[in-house]
Amino acid sequence: MRVKMWGVTIRIKKNDEVGGKRLEGLVIDFLIKAGVSGATVWTGVDGFGKRGKSTLKLEGVTVNMPLIIEVIDEQVKLEPLLPELKRIVGDNGLVSIQDIYMI
After folding, report:
1. Would strands 17-18 and 94-102 be described as parallel, antiparallel, or unpaired?
2. CA 57 distance to own-chain centroid
3. CB of 46 within 8 A of CB of 55?
4. Structural domain tally of the chain?
């Protein structure tokens, strides 16, 4: 049996901050308080976007490492969160939505 869910993907950079706080932590804290079932933060190795290149330095300090925060839950739970998620992320990243089928 397949169950239709929503997947929300948030693409940011590790060093992104809003009001002196790490954006990654702000997003995760918001999702926990909103009662989302779960989220995963993925670390990227390389990438680029409108704010330039994102690269993970293997020798030395990590700079501008891309991060992806992936959330899967019911549409009725995630859809009302989208305006606030977009406000939190702002111009620092992208928020995308996909239909997901769970088995």
Report:
1. unpaired
2. 21
3. yes
4. 1
pLDDT in tens, 53-80: 666 555 666 567 889 999 999 999 999 9
Of all residues in the chain, the percent with pLDDT exceeding 70 is: 82
3-state secondary structure of 80: helix
User: What is the DSSP secondary structure assignment for residue 60, as one 8-state letter?
Assistant: S
With H, G, I as helix, E, B as strand and everything else as coil, classify residue 41.
Answer: strand
Q: Are 67 and 44 in contact (CB under 8 A)?
A: yes
CATH number at residue 62: 3.30.70.120
What is the span of the domain harbouring residue 67? 3-102
Average model confidence (pLDDT) for the chain?
88
